[in-house]
Amino acid sequence: MSAALLNVGGVSAGTEDKPILHGIDLTVGEGECHVLMGPNGAGKSTLGHVIMGDPTYRVTGGSIVFDGADLTDASADKRSLAGIFLSYQAPVEVPGVPLYSFLRTICQMRPELKTTARKFRQRVGDIADALDLDQSFLMRELNVGFSGGEKKKIEMLQLLLLQPKLAILDETDSGLDVDAVRIVSDTVSKYHNENNSILVITHHSEILQHLKPDFVHILIDGKIVKTGDASLIQAIEANGYDAYKG
Fold first, then answer.
1. At what angle do helices 148-162 and 117-130 cross, to 10 degrees?
2. I want to staple 76 with a disulfide (CB 3.0 to 4.6 A). Which of 27, 53, 102, 139 is the partner?
3. Contact 32/94 with Cβ under 8 angstroms?
């Protein structure tokens, strides 16, 4: 059994006026790929954001332990520096901040990623080329005027550049065409190895055709109601989520 990298223990959370998650237990081991599925509004994205430390949500019970450290009350930037990465379903636009400067600043904050300006330019350029992303995008403002597919490629560029210990992919395949899904899937496959872990949040099966999940979880009404292996994906396609509602 893999050593636990992430342990979500009995976590309940929500916004100021709405409870969303109810006693979530989830353990992700080193090198594992987990898939979280469920109907719209089940709380899947909320769980990803709570693990990341999004201040929009308030944890009302339980704990989040990552790589041996209790991060339940830690800010999102500290979780990022600890090695957690969240790929947003709808990446935000940040006017006035060039993408290249943003990437350089992030890497300078991570001692293991610090390098010379020349080597950094080469590395970023190589990753952009691998993603079929025009390097002129690196000089543009972060996500401003980018298409949905281009924004997802930028997220994948960050994933390969930062090499986090845990990547949470929140509906990364949402709104993408077949070619873009393939690029995203190939990128995730290149990133994933025995030293890092993935939590894929989705209600589609397209991206899962290119991955090999170790565990699949079904989240309904803020609770994980079923956990199984990859065969659970086919069961969901055949029976829908209603079969798992209490």
1. 130
2. 53
3. no
Q: How far is CA 193 from CA 8, 31, 89, 137, 189, in A?
A: 22, 6, 23, 28, 8
Give the integer Cα–Cα distance in Å for 114 and 210.
32
> Is the distance from CB of 120 to CB of 128 less than 8 angstroms?
no
What token pair was written down for 157? 């560029």
Which range has the worst mean pLDDT, 25-39, 76-90, 162-176, 202-216?
Answer: 202-216
How does DSSP assign the chain, residue by residue?
Answer: -PPEEEEEEEEEEE-SS-EEEEEEEEEEETT-EEEEE--TTSSHHHHHHHHHT-TTSEEEEEEEEETTEE-TT--HHHHHHHTEEEE-SSPPPEEEEEHHHHHHHHHHTSGGG---HHHHHHHHHHHHHHTT--GGGGGSEETTT--HHHHHHHHHHHHHHH--SEEEEESTTTT--HHHHHHHHHHHHHH--TT-EEEEE-S-STGGGG---SEEEEEETTEEEEEE-THHHHHHHHH-SGGG--
Answering whether pTM is above 0.85, one says yes
